[in-house]
Amino acid sequence: MDGKKPQGRAAGRIKVLVCIKQVRDPEAPLVLREDGSVDLESGASRFMNRFDEFAIEEALGMKDAGLAECVHAVTVGPERSGQAIRRAMEMGADSGTRIDFPGDFSSGPWPVSGLLAGFARKGSYDLILTGVISEDDMQGAVGQMTAEILGIPCAASVVLAELDPGKGTLYVEREIESGRRECLELALPALIAVQSGINRPRYPSLSNVLRAGKEKINTADPEEFGIIPAREILVGMNRPGSTRDPVFLDGRTREKAARLWDILHERSLI
Amino acid sequence: MKTGGIIAVVAEHEDGKINRHTLEVTAFALMAGASSGMRTVVIIPGNGMTEAGRLISEESGADVVLLESPHLENYTSEGYKAALHEFLMEYVSGIVMVPHTQRGSEYAPGLAVRLGAACITGVNGMKSGNGMVFTRQAFNGKLEMQFRPAADFAVITVMPGAAKPEFCSSGPGSVAAVSSDIELKATRYLGVKKSGAEDSGIENADVIVSAGRGIGGVENIGLITGLAGLFDRSAVGCSRIVCDRGWMEYGRQIGITGKTVSPKLYIACGISGAVQHLAGMSGSGFIVAVNRDPEAPIFKHSDVCVVEDLNGFLPEFIEEIRKRRAG
């Protein structure tokens, strides 16, 4: 913690940053090469991490309610990931920046967190939002690490967020097991990693699509923020093995249905 | 003067009781301790957890540290990070193992930053030998990756089921209390709200028919409930995405963020099999998976695999059940 006291702000003066990521479609097939590396570049569509859409929507909702002054989007990634920033601007983000760094899945959460924290520090944001996890890596670490590098409080799996700019606080409810919610109040500046279901992300309006099409996506040099090296070394990859002894049913649909009945009946499961 | 290396398990508890997931992580840690020669300690952040500490030291044989402060009575990310950091800084190096739960996965990455540690989340296995290597899955369970920590400390979150909570202790470990003088500066804890959702009965069902993204839309949920209705003591469940899309209520969600179930029969319909979902149902007696993607990871964790479109297969299977029962 940097020991900063919560500072009250006039409603509408809150600056919000949303950290987003472009992901490879996690449902797409993966090709593992013979040398043990994996081909992630070809054969799959890419889109904004769907959990990040909830983060963008949450920020835009605060702006719509007159609580936030501006919503900026930032990502760490190669040139193609500018598409995710474009999408955020089409949804309504005021501006977007791509930090030009591979942000590769093999580099672990440290470099990306360090760059996001560096960017956020320069912009003096009051509130930072991220999605709870990325659909491809599924680390769920970058948001919390970014907050810690900045020395600000954070909450993850947030399903309700209410900003009180006057008090300089954020009330959050976070989802824990069995549908229960943990309730807390964080002093701003703060970071929240939002869980899916917190809102319904909007589709881009035509006017925002036209506006975003004209605006430039800012590009930032990672050296500007200092790169923290990875502290996890990827030593190998493989296809996960089976935990059971799977039997695939053959034949036409009707034959499979009949076979499934037989198998379940033999085991007295039906 | 700092002490040497440590393997530290951070216990998770509710109402004074340590959960089963913590016991699994303790077993996992003791295996790591046995192969690395490092001492394994279970840290229980809290207040008045003496009895729970004694129980786990007896069951596992591991040494226990009660990390005590009034500010640790209720879990907060800020409180846990501060107290654990303060305690662990007394060591030169360590591997901190945290149950991968909604709480663990919240504070562990921040703790890694405080310790300058490697951070590996969702760990489901390890290999020792030339240093410790941890495995985790990504890309919806299509890829397993092995990471080696490259720092003095590593903070890892361990998935449910990574180890069986079985111990061969030669006697209870020690129990020591350490008081922590942390303060909460930027977090105010306001309590836990209970779920308002009705009991969906999935935790006690013998048969669960469960829907995933592949169901396609709310209009197809009838196929799932229709199939479930043909079994006694059955219930309908789903993966998270189905709740997020509003196709079913959250009380039916199975997985890390939902419920953990172990019915006699689990029929996964259009579920891809991400680790988050598998964590909630892999203990089922018999698993049938229906998915049109032959590469879907769920097939690796099933007994019977049906590569079919749900809208084609489920009506056919429902018809088959009716026909056989009538005949």
What can you see in these coordinates?
The complex is a heterodimer of chains A (270) and B (327). Chain A has a nine-stranded mixed beta sheet with strand order 11-10-9-12-8-1-6-7-13, with helices on both faces. In chain A, strands 2-5 form a two-stranded antiparallel sheet. The termini of chain A are far apart. The N terminus of chain A is likely disordered. In chain A, a hairpin with a 5-residue loop joins strand 10 and strand 11. Chain A has a single domain, classed as Rossmann fold. Chain A contains six helices and 15 strands. Chain A is α/β, with parallel strands linked by helices and 270 residues long. Chain B has two domains: 177 residues, Rossmann fold (3-Layer(aba) Sandwich), CATH 3.40.50.620; 125 residues, Rossmann fold (3-Layer(aba) Sandwich). Chain B has a nine-stranded mixed beta sheet with strand order 9-8-7-10-6-1-4-5-11, with helices on both faces. In chain B, strands 14-13-15-16-17 form a five-stranded parallel beta sheet. Chain B has a two-stranded antiparallel sheet with strand order 2-3. In chain B, helix 7 links the parallel strand 15 and strand 16. The mean pLDDT of chain B is 93. The chains are: A alpha/beta (270), B alpha/beta (327). Strand 15 of chain A pairs parallel with strand 17 of chain B.
